[in-house]
Amino acid sequence: MDKSVDERDITIEKENWDKIRTSIIQSKQLQLGSYYTHAVSSDLKHLVFALSRYKFASKLLMYKKDIRLLELGCQEAIGALMFQQNIKLEKYVGLDFDERAMDWNRNNLSEDFEFICGDLFHSTPQDESFDAVVSLDVIEHISTEMERKYCEVICANIKQEGTVIIGTPNIKMDPYACEASKIGHINLYSQDRLYHLMEQYFHNVFIFNMNDEVVHTGFNPMACYIFAVCCNKKQM
């Protein structure tokens, strides 16, 4: 076998792949955004965890038809793609104050999705027309002084019989978090504290735990992530 020919072919193949890869990266479809899509190259494991959270939320809603869904704190709205795949969506509205992320959403995602760039305390629709409100990795960034206002914003947008899904890291994991995470996570929750906050606004609150991609109801202090699934809004 002529090794020089093989090496030449391999070199040509690598050059062709480099051209293809450059073309893909530069295409609009795969431009990197500011957070989730950046994780493709910097922290793929965390991206898998985030997708698992959205998968759990979407599976909870998958049997109801014609869902109007509001996501508070959507960032680059990869969750919208998961919802679109698993839910019979009538409407998806994503809200976030990150202008770069919202520009990425508008340039790269379906025109069927609606995006609002603004502060959730002032920019939410507040029309009580949504069948579901989802807010993952948001409440831990909101101060204790504003957490009740956050709940009021949710209630102002959810139907009486609607479903709310809140996701947040477990406070027990804070000692193991990176410094950047600790700076942003100013209001962490335990299962007990999250339950008692949400039960002030909803008749039914169900707590689930998650470790990596696995949802469970096991030993609370060992859980990395917490979900509160809330329904039957109280009249305030």
Structure description:
- This protein is of the alpha/beta class and 236 residues long.
- 39% of the residues lie in helices and 25% in strands.
- Helix 7 (147-155) links the parallel strand 4 and strand 5.
- Helix 3 packs parallel to helix 4 (78-86).
Outline type? globular
User: Averaged pLDDT, please?
Assistant: 87
Please tally the helical runs, counting DSSP H or I stretches of 4 or more residues: 9
Helix vs. strand class = alpha/beta
- CA radius of gyration: 21 Å
Strand order of the largest sheet: 3-2-1-4-5-8-6-7
Instruction: Give the uncertain stretches in residue-range form.
Output: none
Reconstruct the topology from this structure:
Layout: H1 3-26, H2 39-42, H3 44-61, E1 67-72, H4 78-86, E2 89-96, H5 99-108, E3 113-117, H6 120-123, E4 130-136, H7 147-155, E5 158-169, H8 179-184, H9 191-198, E6 202-211, E7 214-216, E8 225-233
Parallel strand pairs: 1-2, 1-4, 2-3, 4-5
Antiparallel strand pairs: 5-8, 6-7, 6-8
Sum up the structure in keywords.
236 residues; alpha/beta; Rossmann fold; 9 helices
